[in-house]
């Protein structure tokens, strides 16, 4: 087989005519079919599922897993996944709270009437850019994620609290840089942990929920700032926007402390106290059954190998352009301010967009997981955001249309987690590539974020920008091209040649159950589930290639 590490092994050398005892997975029938077997880890025989459990399984996969798998996944969900949700919540809360503070008195108190708002973003982004790759090297080779990530979270929480005492914008610039530098470990680290513990048909919806914890953070920050402005403004001699930084830090610290317990590191080296010895063995077998490689350490040699290969660049192109087409929703509150809305409404109205983002992200993640149609899902989201950017480019439209257009931009946040889960799938045999996909994508994203918003959305032009939304249309078009290019390259690589005695290509497809969507040159590739009652992704499967 051309790919020695491929997840499926060809078993075409056994025939009923040989007289050998054969299982269904070893049979080559008289129609000259080659059957490829994917050996799954041992599992319990599933019972007939109730209608209610099947219904819940439409939304969350553990409900339709066998009892052993269900118990294991529930443990990982309740500890690691819930922690990651809260961890990314505080990461995004502490990253974007400046925006709520800016429109709630900080601009006036610190006399920020130039481009200072965008420079606050720039200094944060510079910290992220400088810290990302070193943070991943430390996490992979020197310090366990269960120690490294919570320690960074604690440190940046104290810098956020210090922002409450800033007397000038230069102090804020320095503190924002420090927060960004420390936060550089979090997003790539969280994504790698998810990719290390969940299978191909489980990761999409979790990645969508994880990344859209930012939507929850945006909603919470808006409501919190509105409440602090009404209840604590000038209390204790502090303006309401200063209290926001203090409360954000108070919220962040206990979540960071929980991380020391909740993060299980990786299946290959876990010491989590909430996993039994049997759980650890099961988890390792489970990842091996997916063909998920364990990390060996992120060395300079490994970094060179990854960066001189096409996979990471094919991933970064759509990852980056999808992020860049979403700049516009960050300026919704400035439009509301220009329209004369109250401080409370300026902080709360955008939370409806964040809620929309969460719903769309979950629905998109579930659809992409169940169908494997990641290209189609992302393309629909790109088109939706592009419609919003086109309307905002026209600008001279009724107020209600502009409000609607701003809300459409929030839909785009659902695209990036699907691209990330896509990357975790095609890189599952290469732990170092998996680790660097999101880390490198973040470096490029924050590099552009460091200067492009200043150019495209200058504060002094708010809320009507000369070419801000027009540029978002271009980025949307590039994202569309990038998604189709990634899909083409990945599918091309998945073609695996048959053994010498078989003269047809084999297509190794997404390993979800009961799938039959690949047809090329007369070749029909089917993925079937051997047990009709088992719809989780770890049941024994076969691929039958008609040749």
From TrEMBL:
Pfam families documented for this protein: MFS_1 (PF07690)
GO cellular component, as recorded: membrane
TM ranges: 118-135, 172-197, 209-229, 241-263, 310-328, 348-368, 380-397, 403-424, 436-457, 469-490
Localization, UniProt: Membrane
Alphabetical UniProt keywords: Membrane, Transmembrane, Transmembrane helix, Transport
Major facilitator superfamily (MFS) profile domain segment(s): 80-494
Record flagged with keyword Membrane: yes
Molecular function in Gene Ontology: transmembrane transporter activity
InterPro entries with a match to the protein in the record: MFS, MFS_dom, MFS_trans_sf
Membrane topology value: Multi-pass membrane protein
Predominant place of localization: membrane
Superkingdom of the organism of origin: Eukaryota
Assigned protein family: Belongs to the major facilitator superfamily. Allantoate permease family.
Name of the protein: Pantothenate transporter liz1
Taxonomic source organism: Lachnellula cervina
